[in-house]
Amino acid sequence: MATSTNKTGPRASTARKPGTTTRQTATASTTTSTQPTTRVEQAQQIAERAVLVPVGAGLIVRDNLVSTVRSLTTKYSSRESVERELKRYERRGATARNRFERQVRKTRTRFERDLRQRRKRVERTVKQNRRRLEREVRTVRKDLEKQSGTLTTRVEKLVVEAQELLGVS
């Protein structure tokens, strides 16, 4: 067994089996990531992440808060700037209110126009149907009167014939 010296420090045993070297070099060349290889390293990485993630999130929140506070202190550093911002908010609110009122009026006008059109259409249809029904009723009445007159004439004729046959006068 041959022993070799290592530049980083002496090792107890540096002898290797012939098949191990090729396996390690193949693994080293294919995996260039920083993934932990042992269970201890994996546990260390999980523990580090468990600590570093909340710390990092807290720092980001702090940075955002500091940035927001700075922008607010510069924006509202004096009474005039506060009044200017309040007027700006008031104008924006008034604009939104006016836009909403216009939209409501427009919608109401459209709804009323549509309702009037539908009402006129229904009234027109009812009027047409009533006229048609009255015309049909008049026609049926005339036909009934005509048939009634014809029937009356026939019945009278049959009565006269029956009386003549019976000899009743």
In short:
With 169 residues, the chain is an all-alpha fold. The chain has three helices and no strands.
Provide a descriptive summary of the structure in words.
The chain is an all-alpha fold. It is built from three helices and no strands. The termini are far apart.
End-to-end gap: 162 Å
Q: Give the proportion of residues in helices.
A: over 70%
Uncertain parts: none
Quick check: average pLDDT? 84
**Which structural class matches the secondary elements?**
mainly alpha
Shape: elongated
Number of strands: 0
Number of helices: 3
Rg over CA atoms, rounded to whole Å, is 53 Å
| Order of secondary-structure elements | HHH
How are the SSEs ordered, and which strands pair?
Blueprint: H1 18-30, H2 39-75, H3 79-166
Defining traits:
mainly alpha
